[in-house]
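User: Structure tokens for this complex, please. No commentary.
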Amino acid sequence: MDLSIAAFLTQDGVTNGAIYALLALALVLVFTVTRIIWIPSGEFVAYGTLTLAGLQLGKPPGTIGLLVGVAVVAAVVETIATARRGEWRRLPRRLAAWLGLPLAVAAIVWWAAPLSPPLPVQVALTLAAVTTLGPLLYRIVYQPIADASVLVLLIVSVALHFALTGLGLWFFGAEGSRTPAFTDASFQAGQLTFSAQALFVVAASAILIGALYLFFGRMLYGKALRATAVNRIGARLVGISPSFAGALTFALASLLCAFCGVLIGPITTVYYDSGFLISLKGFVGAIIGGLVSYPLAAAGAVLVGLLEAFSSFWASAFKEVIVFTLIIPVLLWRSLTTHHHEEDE
Amino acid sequence: MRPADDLRRGSPRMRFIDSGGRLAMLAFVVALLAIPIVAPPFWVTLGNYIGLYSIVALGLVLLTGVAGQTSFGQAAFVGLGAYTSAFLTTHYGASPWLSLPVGLALTLVVALALGFITLRMQGHYLPLATIAWGISLYFLFGNLEWLGGHTGMTGIPSLSLAGFDLKDERHFYVLIWAITLAALWATGNLLDSRPGRALRALKGGLEMAEAFGVDSARLKIIAFVYAALLACISGWLYAHLQRFINPTPFDLRQGIEYLFMAVVGGAGSVWGAIIGATLITVLKQMLQDVLPGILGRAGNFEIVVFGVLMIVLLQFARNGVWPFVARLLPPRKPAPVPDAPPLPTRERAHGVARPLLEVQRARKAFGGLVAVNDLTFDIRNGEILGLIGPNGAGKSTTFALISGAQPLTAGAILFRGESIGSREPYKIARLGIGRTFQHVRLLPQMSVLDNVALGAYLRGTAGVARSALRLDRDEEARTRAVAARQIARVGLGEHTFDDAGSLPLGKQRIVEIARALAADPSLLLLDEPAAGLRYLEKQALADLLRSLKREGMTILLVEHDMEFVMGLTDRLIVMDFGEKLAEGPPEAIQRDPRVLEAYLGGVA
Amino acid sequence: MKSRSLQAAFAAALFTMFAHAAMADITIGVTLSATGPAASLGIPEKNTIELLPATVGGEKIKWIVLDDGSDTTRAVTNTRKLISEDKVDVVIGSTVTPNSLAMVDVVAEAETPMISMAASARIVDPTNPKTKWVFKVPQNDSLMADAIAVHMKANGVKTLGYIGFNDAYGESWLAEIKRSAQTAGIKVVADEKYNRNDASVTGQVLKLVAANPDAILIGASGTPAATPQKELVARRYKGKIYQTHGVANPDFLRVCGADCNGTLLPIGPMLVYEQLPDSNPIKKVAGEYITKYEAKYGKDSRTTFGGHAWDPFMLLSKAVPEALKKAKPGTREFRAALRDALETTTVVGTHGVFVMSPQDHNGLDNRARVMIRIDNGKWVLAK
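Assistant:
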């Protein structure tokens, strides 16, 4: 291996690592607030790419069908909950949020799809559709069991992953898609070619890490979200609504994932089941960050990307074996150096 | 814990004592045997797979449900068992009955190695590590040509028993379910024994478990290896049932599904494994049959409907399906406590001049902060010593130093002349120091009896093998007798079989004392036992402590509650800023101006 | 008078109804991979099964179609169910090799004939008491690999690089191409593996390009096969690129786009049936099938995998009438007779002319393959 090959591989590793890093951020975000290990995050990425691909073909994507269905279920669930507590006056506002908003988004996407709007508009529509899906799914799947153990939440996440993957196959078919790049520009630096899209991905990851770090560390809403994760009852006592916190978190995380999907569409083919492996590698990154630290999670994800790139050069047949075996000592090191607080489950 | 909920939930132990349970068990076995005789042949097919999955799920109940170690990698061990046997029987013509022990031995080695590395990881690192080696092993299987690669290995012979070829599915069914029932029996025995209690204790917090002598690292590895061995057996059976293997049944997806089965069935009970395996297998088949008729053949909705059903199920049954089934069965009467001779007791140091515990210039620093500064005091035999002081005085740290939760920075602590500073908690427990916890650390879903029996852990010797084979009944009876006696001693006899979580806080604290007593200690360390108790509860507690003192127990009491302490203790040590401020009988301390200044900021 | 003739008519109708019921249906069970990694192969197969007729040899067919999700255990379970519960007369399936291999034992034990839609010759070779029950319709990978090797040799290729799936398909192709290349005097200088879902194949492609072979073969199926191709083009690889017949679907063309111009691959002739000479008997059969398929599923939606689901029926349409002469459907004798009949069937299918024999349960020859090239998003017969 010479220097140029090493350079190519590093570039490849960092780009892929940045993709995994975005997912790692979403996973850490969701976990720190809700204690949910959010495996379906990968499906949101795939939905992001494939929804955009569908819009590219001028067809309303299946995602909006799902959006409508889930919105209806959420409305029903909200109505039942409101009826139980007798808070009828709050019902119109709640329905507007849980039913009206998603229906509006779905309607706009459905109307706009055949008109083939320019790329930025399509991206915006995609982001809107997939982001709206997140809090809705939180409401109907997770909120009723928000104080269950981490294991049960994890199993529920797995079940949701099955459902979303199956729906993805139905909406988008078994074959994959690519989406057009924001820009086809590329830069030469010596022997290396950098595609602008790849740089975009890396830059976006870096910016988002910084933003999340600030949000959770410095801003009140962020701290409120963290407080909910540490102690739900305590958070409620000081006026933070855990369900609002959960919904907000899922909205942010879905936006992250959808954005990731839109970014990676041009550089790789995405399939209805691509999401799982991507989220798994993001999960590795998140774990390396101890499920609390954004910069470490991103670093861990980039490490995975680099390991992958280099081992696919050295021994492509055993790439997975190498990557996942080498992860174990890293996990061991992280586990030993983290002061572990025994959780009250 | 909401007490009412716990009362409604069934206790997850398995006992074969009462007739209701026996009848249900008999009905189950009869139904099992009836299937290959009267049911359609496809039921036998499904029954075989359910048996295979149940074996793996049983291991997961132990590992994940009880010991709290989430593992996604069991499918890899199934693969190890399957590939070992397949390779030996096809390439070397070995008999499958020989390849089974080889497979088990190989699995043992691999599980020990993986266990040593991954079980050190706490929290969320562990599941990811299991995913990691699950994926590694899958790709290893698939890329080794001599294992058939991804295409697989054909021509695996079937099993034959004493010349009789087990080719027919129905014969295999009998074998699979015989093994499944044996595994069920062994795992149930294990959970209902000394190691079982210790495993359950792991979920209650490592600090608590270690305080009673549980070597948590060793126990976790044992649970891990046990689960791996069960998975290996399942793999061996699979290889000879299907007579063809390739890597796909041993991938991560299947590993996830095994965990799924355990959790959905009810990961806290061995029956949960069987129920989970049955439910998921049958549900998938039913969806395959029924859905195309309803939703048309255009799409493949089985997995979507499956996922949705699972979500709904878990929303209504967080602990799985088993608790619901358990409620349908006749309620089990708990086994009466046997009248057995007590376990070997510790020799008492009566009338010995030397103080029981000596703290000599103990010092504990956390970085720059000195929490305990050259503290020196003694605890004399048979006295109740109180350790008090304002907030931040260093009482809790001192407590931690004596109980072994924190190591000393400098100085020494001697118990009966032996140095115990910086020893591990379980070693200190073994020497005869019992303790309670500031925040009650009981296992709420276990009965009071079992919680207290945990205290006697160090007085027993039954290991995993003995317990699984039910050879520990004698010692178990004696342990339970000891526990019952301690419960009676502290005055909670009527609650012996109640779930610990259903008791009010005051009684729970007393249960903790009973648990500490079950270890037959010479010295009892009580960490703010009166905190959060109502007046009458405090009275009861004080009465108990006095009666213990009359029986010769030495007690160190760390407390905030002045009134409680004044009337109860023989001597008081007052701490402030990590140092001993005053020492003496309660009346003297009450009048000591330095003490008053420390608490009230000046003479009143 | 009227009422009596009415009664007679009624009785006749009843008799016909019961007579029909007395005539047993032929039950055909199908297990294929409509979900999971092999979905892009299984879905066209499933779509094709939907188009197949409802009668054969004058008998009504009861079709039972099950999905095995590309999983061997499920394929085996499905097969057992089809045999023991649904009492099928013949099993068609599965889509992928490992599933089919696992099914062999089951069908042999139950003495039920099986027609596989999977690629590897191992499914039917060597002939033994088990495989005598098994037939397969796709061209053996060796047939296709030879086509590539022949073409390469004719075009002066001396060194070959390979990159394929890290699964049974990629594994099988690697073995076949190594063998064919050796026969043709071509050296395989690099072989790499990748996964369907991999985000990038940079490392593998860099290694291949560094070895600089005259030609590179990509052993993958469906749209994932485009990933290494696009990467090779991006790295400015100048040699010939070959693909396998696994890419013969329109989505591959869509995703690959301009990067696939000039790619060569061996394929069953059905894909380019319009370009075949009229004298070729395959043209008519393939034309019938594809017209039907595209009428329902859209223009240019044709795939070769769909053809693999049509060909079993072509075989059965010849074999069932033979078997009906000997026994009634639903009986052990019928299944044995069906097997015997299948073994001696000669029929034109969509992929080639099947000449089955006891030693050859695939029955295809060189007529079952042509080399095609991708030109501007279209499949074109290569000369």
